[in-house]
User: Fold this.
Amino acid sequence: MRLVLEKRAEASTRMAYLSPIIAIALTLITGGIIFALRGLNPFTALYVFFVEPLTTSWSIEQLIVKATPLAMIGAGLAVSCLANVWNIGAEGQLTAGAILGSAIPVFFPDFQSPMTLVLMLSLGVIGGMAYGAIPAFLKNRFGTNEILTSLMLVYVIQLVLDWLVRGPWRDPKGYNFPKTIAFSDWQMLPQFKLIPDSIGPIYINLGAIFAVIAVIALAFMMGRTLKGFELRVQGVAPRAGRFAGFSRERTVWFCFLLSGGLAGLAGICEVMSTVGQLQPGISPGYGFTAIIVAFLGRLNPVGALLAAFALAISYLGGESAQVALGISDKTARVFQGILLFYILACDSLILYRLKFLRSTPKLAEGGA
Amino acid sequence: MNDQLLSVILTIITAATPLLLAAIGELVVERSGVLNLGVEGMMAVGAVSGFGAALMTGNPYVGVLAALVAGAALSLLFGFLTLTMVSNQVATGLALALLGLGISGLMGESFVGQPGVHLERLHIPGLSEIPILGPILFGQDFLVYLSLAIIALVSFVLFRTKAGLIIRAVGDSHQSAHALGYSVIGVRYLCVMFGGACSGLAGGYLSLAYTPQWVENMTAGRGWIALALVVFSSWLPWRILAGAYLFGTITVMGFSLQAYGIGIPSQLLSSLPYVVTILVLVLISRNRALMRANTPACLGQPFVPDR
Amino acid sequence: MKKWMAMAVALALGASAGAAQAADKLKACWIYVGPVGDFGYSYQHDQGRKAVEKALGDKVETAFLENVAEGPDAERAIERFAREGCKIIFTTSFGFMDPTIKVAAKYPDVKFEHATGYKKADNVSIYNARFYEGRYVMGQIAAKMSKTGTAGYIVSFPIPEVVMGINAFMLGAQSVNPDFKVKIIWVNSWYDPGKEADAAKVLLGQGADILVQHTDSTAALQVAEEQGKLGFGQSSDMIKFAPKAQLSANTDDWDPYYVARVQAVLDGTWKSEDTWGGMKDGMVVLAPFTNMPDDVKKMAEDSVAKIKSGELQPFMGPITKQDGTVVGEAGKPLPDGELLGMNYYIKGVDDKLPQ
Assistant:
C-alpha cells in the first residue's frame, strides 16, 4: 500500500481553510509528545508556546515588532516568487538599505528637520533597490542565475557593513567598538498608540504601518491590476506570457526592485526602531525567514502578513518556553521546523487529494 | 618555501573536501529536478551523528557510516514532503535547514567538550614520503579519495549510463519521463537520498577529519556555499571539483596574505570568494547555450502524475 | 454572574499566591550571545550560572536565553527577563550594552550586570576580566618555547579587547626575546572551527611554531597537536583536545563573581559597580602549565604570582607604539581608559591593524 496524491479538479476552498487547522492540530499533538518525552507537562508547554505570547499587551507589541520586517519583506518576495523571480538575497538588500539610510545620522548627525525621517527612509528603500538591481542586471544581461548571485551578495554586503562600522563609520567616542554613533530621537521612527490605555496600551511604530500599507497595496496590485495579471501569468505559464507580449526582462527588474526596496525599507526601519544605530548584527536573518513567510502565506501578500504573525508567535513562544520551562533554544527550533513542515505539507491538500493505493499500478511499467 | 607551498595545498584540500562532498550530492538532486536548500541542516546532523557514533564505538569509520545514514534519513523527510506531499521545495528546504540545525544541537548536547575520534590519514611507506607529491597524493584521509571517486562516479553515471539518462530525463522533462514509463517520484527519492547521504558525509568530514570535535553550528554556512557551487558548476560534476578547490584556494590564500602582513582589510579578503564566484558565474552564463543545455528544466517544479 | 465574579477573584488570588511563592526565591537570569554548547565563551558563562545554582541552592532559581543575536532581539530578551520577575540579569556580550541600559531605565528595581561594556547606571554594573594578564604570561612562555621565534595568532575582530590581547602577548614575549615575531590572521568570526583550522595551518606553514587564538573553538589547538607544534587554549581548558600541544589556556572563570553578585542581591547590599577583575580576583585563570620544561614553568608561575601581587603590570609605561610614538608615564601602568580604547599595535608587531 502506498500514499499518493491526486490532483483535484479545482482548488478546494474547504481545504484552504481547513489545512492550517489540521497543521496546527498535528503540530500540537507532535509538540505535546516531544514535551512529554522531555518530562514536561504538554499542556503547560503548549500554552506557553502558543497562547502566552498573546496574553499581555507587552508581548503583543513585541509580536508586532517581530512580524513587521517579516511581513514587509515577505509580501515583496511573495509577489516576486509568484512571478518566478527568485530573490534569495533579501537579507543583503535589507542590509544595503540599512547602510544607505544610516548615512544621514552618520554624516549629518545634527540635521534635524521633518525631512530627516523622509530622507532616511527613502535612502533605505533606494539602497535595497540598488542592491536588488545587481542580480536583476546580471540576470537580464548575462542570464546569470539570480538565486546564486543574490545569495552571494548577502555575504558581500554583510562584510561591507562590518568594515564600515569597524572603520570609517565607527563612533569616535565608542572605545573603538564596532558601531556608529547612536541615533538621536528625531532619527528614530515615531510611535503611535494603537489601542488606548483602558485596554492596552499597545504602541506600534511607523514601520508596522508601512508593512500594512505595503501588504494592502501589493494585494490590490496582484488582484486588481494588469501588472498583477502579468506577473501571475509569467509565474504560471511563462510561454503564454511571452506570447502575450509580456517582457520577461521587465518582470525581473520589477520584482527585484520591488522586493529589494521593501527589504531595504525593512532594514532601515529596524535600525531606526529596535537597534538605534548601525552595528554588525542588525537582523537575525529576517531576509531568509521572509522566504518561508512568503511560501507559508501561499505567495499572497495578505497571506504573508498572517504567516509573519505565525512565525513571530513561534519565535516569541520559543523564547518564553526557554525562560518558563527551561527547554533549550534547540528544542524551540526543532519545534518550529516541525510546525513549518506540517503547514507546508497540509497546504498540498488544497490542490490535491490524498489516496492510498493498494499496489503500484502495472500500467506505468509498460510505457506509452 | 616548499614546505609552505605544501602546507597551503594540504590546507586547501581539507577546506575543499566538505564543500565538494555536499555539492556533488546536491548536483545529483538538482539534476533530477529537485532543489533541496536544506544542505546545511543535513550536514549538521551528519556531523553530530558521525561524531557521536565514532565516539561511542571508538571507530571513525563507523562514524562515517553513521553520518551518511543520518544525512540520508533526514533527506527522506524532505523527500516525503516535497515528493509525496508536493510541498514547495524552496520553503521546505529552508525549513529543513532550520530543523537540522536544531536536531543536531539537541543530539549533541552531551558531546560538547569531548575530544573526538580522528579519521587518520593514509600512510604508505615510501610513497607518502616523496617530497611534496607524496603527502598530497598518498597522505590524505580516505574521505578525500572518496570525494574524488564520487565525482568520477557521478560524472560517469550521469553521462555514460542509462541510469544517468533516466535521471537527467526526469530532471529535464518529468512529463515525458513519466510517459516513457519511468517512476519520476521513485528516481527523485533515490537522488534526494543520495544528496542527503553526501551532505551527511560532508558533515562527518567536518567532525571527524577537518576539526575532530562537535560544537553547535560547526557547519558555519558551508551548506549554503555548497549550494552555490552547484550552480557555479552549471551542473557538471568535474566543475564542482574545480569550484570547491577554487573556493578553498581563495580562502586559504586570503589567510596567507594576511599572515605575510599585507595591510588589506580582512573583510575584503573574506568577501573575495563570493565576489569571485559571482564573476565566474557571470562569465559562465554568458555562454547561454551551455547553460541552457545543462540546467535541469524541471528544477524546483513539483510532479504529480495525471491519472 | 456572582458565581463568575467569585471564580475570577479566586483565580486572581490563586495567581498572586503563585507569584508570591515564586518570589521566595531570587530569580537570576543570564543572556548568552552564543549556544551554551560552544565550549568557549558562552559555555564559561553558563558554568558560572551553574555555580550560582550550586552555591546558593534553593535560595535562587536561574534561567537563561542562549543564541540571542546582538541586534533587534536583544532588547526584547532582556525585557522579557525583567518582566518575568528576574531580580538580577546578566547580559554577557558587548552588543547587549545599549539594550541593557534602555531596559534598565524602565525597570529601576531590577539589577543588571553587563559584561565587557562601558556604560553604567544606578542599577547597571559592568564587569569584565583582565584577560590580557594571562596573555602576557602566554607571551613569555611562547618566547621561551618557540624555536623559530615566531608565534601565529588567530583573531576574530579588531576590537580593543582583542588588540589589547595581542599587545600584552607581545610585551610578554619581548620581555624574554626582544626580537620575537608574531604573524596575525583575522578570521572575521568568533566561531568557525573550519576557518580557524585553515588559519592555523597557514600560520604553521609560514614558520610559526606556537599558536595563540582569540577565537573560541578548539580547532587551532588540534591542528597544533596533529603537526607536533604547540599552542594555547582559549576560554576553556582544552587539554583534552591537545594533550601534547597545549602549554596552558587563558580561561575565564566567572563563578566567584556571579556567586558574589547574586549573594549581594540576596543580602540587599548590591551596588552599581565597575569590576575589571584579573588573576588576583580569580576571574582570569591560566590552565595548568604543561608540555614545557621546568624552568619555563617556574618562570610562568613566578609571573602569575607577581601579577597577582601587583608587582608585575603587563602594560607598564612608557609603551612605544608601532608608529614610534610613546604612551603612558614611566613607571606607571597605562590607565584603564587607555586600555579599553586600545586601537594601535605596540612596536614589534609586524602587521597593519585593520581600521
Remarks:
- DSSP finds 13 helices and no strands in chain B.
